[in-house]
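**User:**
Make up any protein.

**Assistant:**
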Amino acid sequence: MVTPYPISLRLAGQQCLVIGGGRVAERKIRTLLEHGGLVNVISPRLTDALFQMKQQGQIRHVANYYHREFLHGVFLVICASDSDKVNHEVANDCFAMGILVNVVDDPDYCSFFVPSSFRRGDLTISISTGGKSPMLAQRLRQQLEQHFGPEYGELVRIMGDLRQMVRQRVKDSKKRRLIYACLLDSDILDLLRNGQIDLVKERIEQCMYW
């Protein structure tokens, strides 16, 4: 089997459809909302939390069963109904229409998998088992969360600012890479971890004029 191609999708402003209104669907919906997706839910029933989200205008809800016409204009679909027949029908319709689809706990009917991930600022670390063992991915994520603290998010921010500055001031691409490597190879993570901001600024200056 060909391994999946790992990507990060921009969901801001994109129409996302969720089939199902139970607790699994609720978890998926929260994640879609966190990433800016416009979430539409198709389900005869909703959890209490999803009903609240509907009342607050966070999601749109159609109290109905799935019909193919619900897919028109949709960018991405997550199917979390309690019926394999419905899930497979949704997936096959999405395959035919070229729409990204994930059927929860059924990798054969997915065009994408949702990795287990966590964030530190703009740093996202994701673990995927290609749908084979979500629990293993979750365990690995929990281990990595202990290693990668908030200082990594701050480092990403600093590297982003440095990159903009270097691109304006340094024309030689080889020199740019040396500056980035200089900072990453320094003790900057320890300094960030210990809140030594003055020394962080000093390291940046040292690398800029290295």
Summary: Residues 43 and 65 are 6 Å apart (CA to CA). The chain has eight helices and seven strands. The longest strand covers residues 15-19.
